[in-house]
Amino acid sequence: MKTSETIAKISPALLAAQRAITFASKDATNPHFKNKYADLPAVIDAVKAALNDAGIMFMQTPSPSEHGSLALTTRLVHESGEWI
Length: 84
Known about the structure:
Blueprint (H helix, E strand, L loop, with lengths): L9 H11 L7 E2 L6 E2 L2 H14 L2 E9 L5 E9 L6
Antiparallel strand pairs: 1-2, 3-4
Helix pairs in contact: 1-2
């Protein structure tokens, strides 16, 4: 896992956010297996307010991956500038 040089400020903020985060709503259906799952918007809805209230934002950036597929990297950034 990559992090900023220090994580002394983001660590307690992540703990505060984790305490406030609830489960994402399983509101989408997989047409192949017919099972329910939480899609990306539901996951974002479940975590965004708690992260923001703790002074944390998230950024997602695409990058090339093996076999021509696309990878999505998520970075959590604290208002102090520390990141994970």
